[in-house]
Amino acid sequence: MQNILSKFSLEGKVAIVTGASRGLGQGIAVGLASAGADIVGIGSGDMPETARLVEEQGRKFHAIKANLISQEPINQIIEETKRVFGKIDILINNAGIIRREDALDFNEQDWDDVININLKTTFFLSQAVAKQFVEQKTGGKIVNIASMLSYQGGIRVPSYTASKSGVMGITKAMANEWAQYNININAIAPGYMATDNTAQLRADSERNKSIEDRIPAGRWGSPEDLAGAAVYLASDAASYVNGFTLAVDGGWLAR
Q1: Cβ pair 97, 110 in contact under 8 A
Q2: What's the CA gap between 201 and 209, in Å, rounded?
Q3: How far apart are CA 91 and CA 75, in angstroms?
Q4: What DSSP designation does 8 have?
Q5: Domain-by-domain residue ranges, the chain?
Q6: What is the DSSP letter of 118?
Q7: pLDDT digit string (tens) for 104-161?
Q8: Where are the beta strands (DSSP E) in the chain?
Q9: Cα 234 from Cα 109, distance rounded (Å)
């Protein structure tokens, strides 16, 4: 039997990570790099810190500036990745936004913006990468970033809840159709993570305490907490895992 640790290696792999400039995307990109992957980071701005952290792992980093609120940049992302690295092995659909407002007052623009980047682009970028996997005849790994709100309703975030429930759904749907091509599509559902998206919650001392008190681990998660799950789902160790959403939540869902 092959040494099990070698199955977790991403040596020689090329991974696209969306939303790689900071937070969860940056943590995942660095984790994949530490396992051996070269990284194509997609972000709306420059990513010098992510580039430095990836290169410190001895891997290559290529940045592509793109606004994923529309699907227009998708072809550019595929073609530029192929031009720079020659292939694609892994896609991490991490880019996402959140808008907070009472459901009674939630407006259509905030609904559309969140659904477009969190769900629509996730699907169509996955579709484009899957077509590349089929063309390469190599198979590949796609990891979507879901949420606790793929399971729960949340408060004051109706479009985010809809989008992340949809991410869990399309993860299953894509897995059903693309497993025949040796493509694995899974998702990670982060719990309450200390990122820009949750800054407003953490700044509210009462809400912050109520959240921490409900997490069995007793703390907010960090981007680094997702790295192991991402490496696993992107590696050969997870080749018989398909259509599953893995919670990385400090025990939140178990409570």
Answers
A1: no
A2: 10
A3: 14
A4: G
A5: 10-249
A6: I
A7: 999 999 999 999 999 999 999 999 999 999 999 999 999 999 999 999 999 999 999 9
A8: 14-18, 38-43, 61-65, 90-93, 140-145, 183-190, 245-248
A9: 34
Q: Is the dihedral of CA 220, 18, 47, 138 positive or negative?
A: positive
Q: Hey, which residues are catalytic here?
A: 160
For position 201, what pLDDT does the model report? Answer: 85
10-249: what fold? Rossmann fold (3.40.50)
State the burial class of residue 3 (Cβ atoms within 10 Å of its Cβ: 0-12, 13-18, 19+): exposed
- Pull the structure tokens for residue 122: 């996730």
Which amino acid makes up residue 5?
L
Question: How far is Cα 123 from Cα 144, in angstroms, rounded to an integer?
Answer: 10
Give the integer Cα–Cα distance in Å for 7 and 30: 18
Q: Which two tokens stand for residue 67?
A: 């606004």
- Sequential pLDDT tens for the chain (255 residues): 678 999 999 999 999 999 999 999 999 999 999 999 999 999 999 999 999 999 999 999 999 999 999 999 999 999 999 999 999 999 999 999 999 999 999 999 999 999 999 999 999 999 999 999 999 999 999 999 999 999 999 999 999 999 999 999 999 999 999 999 999 999 999 999 998 878 888 998 998 999 999 999 999 999 999 999 999 999 999 999 999 999 999 999 999
Helices then strands, counting H and E runs in the chain, come out as 9, 7
Dihedral sign of CA atoms 89, 244, 33, 115 in order: positive
Q: Specify the 3-state DSSP secondary structure of 96.
A: coil
Among 53, 12, 18, residue whose Cα is nearest residue 36: 12
Residue 190 exposure: Cα atoms within 13 Å on the Cβ side: 26
